[in-house]
Amino acid sequence: MKTVVIVYSSVTGNTKHVAEVIAETLAREDGTDDTFSGDAITTVLVNADTEYKRQHTNPEYTGYTAGDAYVVGCTTAAFRTSDLMREYLAGYPRDMMEGKPCAVYGMCAGTAGYVRRELANLLRGNGAVICAHDVFKGPTNYLAGGYPKAGKLQVWPEADHTPIQAFAEGLTSAFDRAVADPQMKCKVPLGGVSGAIFRMVPGKKIDGMMRMSLGPLSVDNTRCLRCAKCVVSCPYGALAMVEAEGAVPFDPTYVEPGTGYYPDRQENTEYVQSRIAAGVNSTRVVVQDEALCHGCYRCIHVCPTAAINPTKRMDKWKHMPRYHYTEGTVQSGKARMVTETEYDALVTGEQEM
């Protein structure tokens, strides 16, 4: 029996739906199980969003699922792979994925997803062999209803299952080819709407994305937790954590939790508290290779204490929220949730809490 692990990150339910159809197609209910290298297939569905939260709150997390092959699908979040999927995959043990066949698919409500290349690069970083890819267009759902105020999700039309099933039915032969030739090359195009957008915009393109460097990053080591979230999340390998004796040490008396696309202030504060309690190695610092920086802001978004700031394009970044906690509150566990009014004030301008 071969195990195919299907990992997905879904916002409106479309990506999850595709994952379920792929699972049903691979392990047919009529008893005529498909085969992968001569064995029947069993499938395991993994919700990366749920598992990331468990991973994020438990330093001893060991809930990763080992498989003989993988299928990974993700919705498009701000033109990129979701942060939850990225960090979940970054933590996946390399020995579970190295040399294993892997297929990727992209999703976006109302249009074809275009995160498959980024997913492929993430998985190649874990040693996986990319052997198949596709994109799927789902119902418009929230977009049609004025996100995020839409009501009931639209039902995926039965006819739209055909391309998903066709993709799934071709996976077993793709897996077999990858097993036979671990060095096989599978070119994954950018695809989707963004491919046309970037073709129309002048400028240097690297791996399909425009290069817009943030300039030299300013890292405040008095706030840096040395958690390496920025290093792990950088899609271009522009950051590294290195030993640097004599570096400015971390100072727990004032930290700034809560940056990111989906800031959960309470969860973020608990994470900062746990890192402080475990101790911060102040001899390690983040360094940047500016030549590799694409200006995606991901390192800034994931930093739990707002220790990273760009030296370029500040006109855009200055509108992002900062969450301030007065001296001593975080390490003593006295941080509190803010009201909607206070939150609005934080978005429009920094405010002490």
Automatic annotation (TrEMBL):
GO MF: FMN binding
InterPro entries linked: 4Fe4S_Fe-S-bd (IPR017896), 4Fe4S_Fe_S_CS (IPR017900), Flavodoxin/NO_synth (IPR008254), Flavoprotein-like_sf (IPR029039)
Domain Flavodoxin-like: 4-172
Domain 4Fe-4S ferredoxin-type intervals: 215-244, 283-313
Pfam families to which the protein is assigned, alphabetical: Fer4_7 (PF12838)
Taxonomic superkingdom: Eukaryota
Protein name: Uncharacterized protein
Originating organism: Kipferlia bialata
